[in-house]
Amino acid sequence: MNKGTPRSMATKPARQNRRQRPTGRRHPLATVALIVVGLLATGGTYALFTTSATAETSAAAEATIEDGNKLFAANCATCHGLNLQGSTQGPSLIGVGAASVDFQVGTGRMPLAATGPQAEKKPVQFTEEQVSALAEYVASKAPGPAIPSDEYLQGDGDAAEGAELFRINCAMCHNVAGAGGALTEGKFAPPLADVAANHVYDAMLVGPQNMPVFNDTNITPEQKANIITYLKYLDETPSVGGFGLGNLGPVSEGLFIWIFGLGAIVAITIWLTARSN
Amino acid sequence: MTTTEERPAVAVQKSRGTRFTGWAANYIDERTSISGIVKEVGRKIFPDHWSFMLGEVALYSFIVILLSGTFLTFFFQATMVEVEYEGSYVPLKGIEMSAAMASTLDLSFDIRGGLLMRQVHHWAALLFVASIGLHMLRIYFTGAYRKPREINWLIGFVLFVLAMAEGFTGYSLPDDLLSGNGLRIIDGMVKGIPVIGTWISYLLFGGEFPGVDIVGRLYVLHILILPAILVAAIGVHMLLLIINKHTQFAGPGRTNDNVVGVPIMPVFAAKAGGFFFIIFGVIMLIASLFQINPVWTYGPYDPSPVSAGTQPDWYIGFADGALRLVPPGWETEFLGATFSWNIIVPLLILPVFLGLVAFYPFIEAWITGDKREHHIADRPRNAPTRTAIGAAGVTFYAMLWAAASSDLIATHFRLSIEGVIHGCQVLLIVGPIIAYFMTKRICIGLQKKDREIALHGFESGRIVRLPGGEYIEVHEQLDEYQRWKLVSYEDYVPLMIRPDANGRISINQRMRAAASGWFFEDRIAPVTSKEIESSHHEH
After folding, report:
1. Cβ pairs bridging A and B (under 8 Å)
2. Fewer C-beta neighbours within 10 Å, C or N terminus of chain A?
3. Winning range, highest mean pLDDT, from A137-151, A154-168, A183-197, B224-238
4. What is the C-alpha to C-alpha distance for residues B410 and B417, in angstroms, rounded to an integer?
5. DSSP assignment of B160-213, as one string?
6. Is-contact B523 B492, C-beta < 8 A?
7. What part of B 30-69 touches A (C-beta under 8 Å)?
8. CA of B470, closest CA in chain A: separation in Å?
9. B57, B273 contact by CB (below 8 A)
């Protein structure tokens, strides 16, 4: 957009040129001039269109908002109310933002299959377009956290800083290795292995269910991108020392040594002292 | 090798190797008089039973620990000086950490074979304590701690505690987040001791937790003092094992006065040497295939973060569980000081439990009044009350142990963590009682079955019609050898209350009689030869 402004200024004198010298079309440089003018005009119009393209996109958005409205009425309104006002069955969605819908519906947590300690991840019920339509609809009703921009979701940030932030802010519920952990009353922090980057970002932004909100002043978008980088590193790096035993730490290690380690050794002792019949 | 052809004049010519061995043995013997010891020790007999090898497993895993630990000391830096990590592990690059943590990471990523050695050391440590535990259970349930082996039980118990201490000090050395949290819990427990707690904590950590001293101090304990005591105690343990001789299970030809088995030299020594390499191999296999204590995931210690699922290594789990099971709000304020009963009560209960384990042989000897020597190991069923007490103790320990992983039980079995904790709290009290009665009944049932089989044989499944039309199932008799195993155990009777020389009955006497009654009142007496004879006449 910052490139567009000077270009659009340049188009105006070009147009004037064309009108002032209509006779010079046989000039040897006319073809060159025409191409230059043509390019400038196209580029300028494009630039103009992109700067003031609100009319066009909002028309497209209207369509998805309309779709979203229908999807919402059919799938969500029973609990959340036709005007997002909420009911005894579900909370109000006014101001939750597109990010919240992207997380809850995009991970399959919503629509809820059954009431329980918390909504759980399950197969996603809607297509990507439907999810974004729902998100647009909810966002159109009241302002709220938007779906994160792609630049933060690439996983190309600083893994070391991300790891440190993860240990300080996330590990107490999600475990240092992202293996998940228990919360009160049967609720739990889910494991973070192979969770899509946008859902991780959404979750930090809106704090779904029992998770606290980590807003952009608390953890900046760049820091969120670093955390995503670290999680991506964990996903992509095989466990260094062999099978990880679920990354659950000393409990799984202790069970392993008792059941398989000592079990194998007891089997060996029995074999060694066995007498042939 | 042979020289016989060169010197045919000598009738019996020994080979050069034999002559050298003879010369060397003589040389050493003339200077050390070692032949007496070799004669004595080399002819010690070891009976053969799989459960007698568990102590060996502990010993061999300890040797593996010593070997791998020596390797680790070459590279580990036991200091908490802050450094910036510049090694190979990307997600920690440029992070400030202690030199202890950085050198542990270097061992894991930049020193050839370092990670394998770390994993060998840690897995072997887990196996060491686990095999000690199983070995203790074997000793307990076969009554092998009875006279003359009570002292060796006590030394073994000290070894168990030392092994736990070794484990905990080693676990804390890398100065990673997980072990730092463990140390913080220890710090909290120490500070929970009234009056002196804070002083001890400051003394231990050289100031406010975590300080910059603790890793260096734990290191000295871990590689010098504790191993020295451990090795000495192992020496005494094995010496007493040789002096006391090994127990054996009842069987034909096996009496309280002999030991049937193989001599140390050469059979047992060769077997044991082979067994050592098997244990070494199993540990290496586990260490090369399964990751343990990935400190790089935990990150350097920082007092603020605590990871979900933070647990100590398994053998400290029972202490962690004890803390988790204390109901909320156990604190009182008195004269401006807070008494943290939630810390003090576990701190009192655990030593009482461990004390009962340590002194059980003496307690049982007092109850039974038995001053005889016992070299025949009991079958657990033949001492129902002891076995039941053991089962109750195991249940108590197991509940504490399970409670230490309450959060993982909750997430993996889809339970609420409060439910798991309350369940463990109830079972910690009720579980041992249930276990006691169930085990006792099962033991007595098994004894009755043994008695039935010894007297009447076992059902052969062959139905025979008698001339009179009656159908009977033929019972097949055991042979002498099989029967021997079923009938040869000692019969105890409850102690009688007897007045002493002054004609008085002391309280001690009464208590002892009551305890003895509880111990033996519903016993099943072993089958006597008379009973067997009369039962034979019936058939």
Report:
1. 190
2. C
3. B224-238
4. 5
5. HHHHHHHHHHHHHTT-BHHHHHHHHHHHHHHHTSTTTHHHHHHHHHTSSSSTTT
6. yes
7. 48-51, 53-54, 57
8. 38
9. no
Tokens for B393, please give them: 């103790």
Distance from CA of B61 to the nearest CA of A (A): 11
Cross-chain Cβ contact B294/A240 below 8 Å: yes
- Asked if B521 and B494 count as a contact pair (C-beta separation under 8 A), the reply is yes
Closest Cα partner for B382 from B513, B530, B527, B495? B527
Q: How far is CA A91 from CA A77, A85, B377, B390, in A?
A: 11, 8, 68, 54
For residue B53, which of A80, A193, A270 has the smallest C-alpha distance?
A270
Task: Indicate the helix (H) or strand (E) that contains B476.
Answer: strand B471-476
Residues B503-535: pLDDT tens digits? 888 888 888 888 988 888 888 888 888 888 887
Could you read off the pLDDT of B258-298 as tens digits, one per residue? 888 888 878 888 888 999 999 999 999 999 999 999 999 99
pLDDT (0 to 100) of residue A54: 46
* b (16+ CB within 10 A) / e for B212-244: eebbeebbebbbeebbeebeebbeebeebbeeb
Cα angle A209, A210, A211; round to 5: 95
- Those residues with Cβ within 8 angstroms of residue B392's Cβ, 6 or more apart along the chain or in another chain: B432, B433, B435, B436, B439
Chain A residues near residue B108 by CB distance under 8 angstroms: 240-241
The β-bridge relationship of strands B331-334 and B82-84 is unpaired
DSSP label at residue A178: S
Angle at alpha carbon of residue B285, lines to B280 and B288, rounded to 5°: 120
Please list the residues that pair with B69 across neighbouring strands.
none
Under DSSP, the state recorded for B265 is I
Read off the pLDDT band of B371 (50, 70, 90).
confident
B89 min Cα distance to partner chain A (Å): 9
Among candidates B50, B178, B311 on the partner chain, residue whose Cβ is nearest the Cβ of A273: B50
Contacts of A249 by beta carbon, 8 Å cutoff, 6+ apart:
B178, B309, B310, B311
Q: Environment class of residue A172 by beta-carbon count within 10 Å: exposed (0-12), middle (13-18) or buried (19+)?
A: middle
**Residue B58 CA to chain centroid, in angstroms?**
8
Chain B, 78 to 137: residues with Cβ < 8 Å from chain A are 90-95, 108-109, 115, 119, 123, 126-127, 130-131, 134
ipTM tops 0.95: no
Is some CB atom of chain A closer than 8 A to the CB atom of B279? yes
Specify burial of residue B475 (Cβ count, 10 A radius: 0-12, 13-18, 19+): middle
Matching residue, tokens 């013997």: B29
Using an 8 Å Cβ cutoff, are B166 and B227 in contact? yes
